[in-house]
Amino acid sequence: MRRWGAVMLFCTARRAVALLAPRRRQPTRLYSLPGASDYHVPVLGNECIDWLARDDGVFVDCTLGGGGHSSLLLDKVGEKAKVIGLDRDRDAIQAASARIRDARFSTIEGVFDEGLQRAFQEHGKFTGVLMDLGVSSHQIDDAERGFSTRFDGPLDMRMGASGKTALDLINDLDAKGLARLLRQNADEPHASRIAKAVKSASLTTTSDLASIVSESIPKTSPPHLDAKRRSKAVARVFQALRIEVNDELGALDRALELLPSVVAEGGRVVVLAYHSLEDRRVKRFFRDGKFRGDAARDAYGNRLTPFRPLTRKAETASDEEVAANPRARSARLRVAERTDWSPS
Ligand SMILES: C[S@@+](CC[C@H](N)C(=O)[O-])C[C@H]1O[C@@H](n2cnc3c(N)ncnc32)[C@H](O)[C@@H]1O
User: Fold this and answer.
1) Which of 62, 153, 158, 167 is least surrounded by Cβ atoms within 10 Å, i.e. has the fewest?
2) Residues 40 and 65 sit within 8 Å (Cβ to Cβ)
């Protein structure tokens, strides 16, 4: 009897300890992040919308993708607001239009500057503009699009349907030109070796490119670090080509330069960048109103800029978000507000 009593006491004590102990938090899962869909999981979803949403006005989501950020925005804005989703990829326009059934929402297919011009002609000045740069998970996961380093597909990498493919680009450049591109767009330390190897091979698919790049990297030990270095080089080469094929930096520059004339005074621009080439441009433009040289000044030395940065340092994703969505790791969020000054 005594033994039973002791066992009962032990069990009760254990249950009490379990109840009192702080609960271990469940890890956040990818698809439970705000705005997530099979198409794409938005990065910093709530943060972007908190900066952007107002009750009324015209909002342009320049990078509609799966419509994750747009749906979060529609949840926050008022009855009379309008949200225009812009994307150069028809898949994105179709997927987001099927997902979002809302009279306040419409779409435009096109590149940033042409889409912004069309939205401005139809709706007037904007209260908010969002740019979540780069490619969507859907684009990466569809082997036929040629963005993935993991799946075999044609060397395409175009976000839209027109223009040169990655294979056209490789064929058009000589080894020096290709090396320059790898250095400029991805800081590739083995640019010359890789470019020579790529130009002397016959390649047509993403797997061909990935193995040529991987084999051209000099061997080091230990083997597991060697494999990591090779896969990083492959990722950088794919990134460099993708940026060029889609003229990503040119499109971003043209869009930023257009914003002062299409964003209303007090309106906000929210940009999520995933690599330093883009983030640096956004930071400079928000601070100085141009990409080179100092901001204009009035007779008293006051800076004259079309935007006022609202984020002193770029915001980044929480550890929890990064654990659920590793893509969020490199995200840099910057926000600026339109001032009353306009460049002449
Ligand atoms: C990172 S995804 C956006 C995902 C979206 N925020 C969501 O929540 O689903 C970027 C999207 O922007 C589009 N895009 C990138 N650059 C573009 C440009 N210059 N003009 C138009 N669309 C562009 C891509 O086609 C892609 O669908």
Assistant:
1) 153
2) yes
- C-beta 40 within 6 A of ligand 1: yes
Residue spans in the chain of domains classed CATH 1.10.150.170? 161-245
Beta carbon of 85 within 6 Å of any ligand 1 atom: no
Tens of pLDDT, residues 118-138: 999 999 999 999 999 999 999
Burial degree of 29 (CB within 10 A; 0-12, 13-18, 19+):
exposed
336 lines ligand 1 (CB under 6 A): no
Architecture of domain 32-137+248-338 in this structure: 3-Layer(aba) Sandwich (3.40)
Per residue in 308-323, pLDDT (tens digit) is 999 999 999 999 999 9
Could you tell which of 31, 47, 60, 63 is best to mutate to test the pocket of ligand 1, judged by most ligand atoms within 8 Å of the CB?
Answer: 63
- Residue having the nearest C-alpha atom to atom 15 of ligand 1: 134
- What's the confidence (pLDDT) of residue 200? 97
Tell me the CA–centroid distance for residue 4 and ligand 1, in Å: 66
Q: Give the Å distance between the CA of 302 and the centre of ligand 1.
A: 36
Kindly give, in sequence order, each residue whose CB lies less than 8 Å from that of residue 123, ignoring residues fewer than 6 positions away. 58, 82, 84
On whether the 161-245 domain is CATH 1.10.150.170, my answer is: yes
Mean of the pLDDT values across residues 21-40? Answer: 82
